[in-house]
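Hi U.,

Before I forget, here's the chain from the pilot set. I'm dumping it here mostly so it's searchable later in email.
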Amino acid sequence: MNALVGQSGGPTSVINSSLMGVVDTCLKSSRIDRVFGMRYGIEGVLGNDLLDFSTVDPALLTGLRKTPSSGLGSSRLKLQEEHFVPILKQLRKHDIRYFFMIGGNDTMDTIHRVVEYAAAHGWEMTGVGVPKTVDNDLYGTDHTPGYPSAARYVALSVLQAGLLARDMQRVDQFVVFQTVGRSAGWLPAAAACARQSTGDAPHIILLPERPFLHGEFLQLVEEKYRKHGFVSIVCGEGITNPDGSPVSASQTRDKFSNVEFGAMGGTSAAMILHQIISNEFGWRGEFQVTESLQMSAADRAVDLDFKEAYACGREAVKLALKGHGGVMVTIERETGANNTYKAAFGTAPLSEVANHERPMPDKFIARNGMDVTPAFLEYARPLIGALPEYSSLPHPKRKRS
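Structure:
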């Protein structure tokens, strides 16, 4: 019997570690003859574009574990009814009995639908999902592989840009940094880990879980400016107005009906916030939109993230070999010695993961809706790791009217 593995959706810095966790474990199993990789997600199955991993140089595979982006190529193809017949034909042709995909909600839905269709037509397979998303919004898991590294990217960016904004405050009075994250605030919230002293950036964090309130926002901007001499703002790309409309004003949607916040013709939330502040106060400022860089910055990746990503891939194969399919591998947080972070593994049904998102809980969001709580910092800091400490010359306090 053979196995098939693919990657789907946006990449992460550690998604190839999950891929190699699956591949290595399959190749070592006496019950799996060959393991195929689908090029560009499920499109590789439809086009018979498969890679036999037994033919790949082992040294190349070892190096792939620390290589960012999606080694097999990715896809956002939304399955239609006409796709299932040719998919099943390829599964039969290559004797695929174990089916693995690495991705987010939509990917888990793909696994579930393909396995269910195959079973209904007499072809039994075991399908297991491996979690992946920098958004960290997958149901049933403490966090997703890819999030710790992306969160560290955000925290480091805001830490360093905050020093720049502080020292350039006589030129630019504010800066807005935008993270990815369609409907969950886990990534913008990670910026709070950049703070090391009172007054450090960021001063305001806008989360998709809370509506953007124009008046309250401007009031807080002015308050922070008077207190610190500049304002550092972090926002998620998916923040919305009270009526649910995106602050970014983008009208473009992908094939899964998700708003494409970075799409051509749309504006970013950071640009809109920049305009709002400039129009209100007449200040000069910057906006920083890094888009997919936080999804592929291996130079800022977390070693813990690489290890957990690989372990999730291995766990998926172990579950499949035991006949435990229809699930996604989950990471469960446990308390280790001296109250340290420790991870274990569990499962969540694919059907539930596909149909649910995991927003930030209320206990992680500050009462004013524009910051995080100490509870979030306790959650995030073990994942992100220690950040560098920079020196600062003493600054005399400026009197403000």
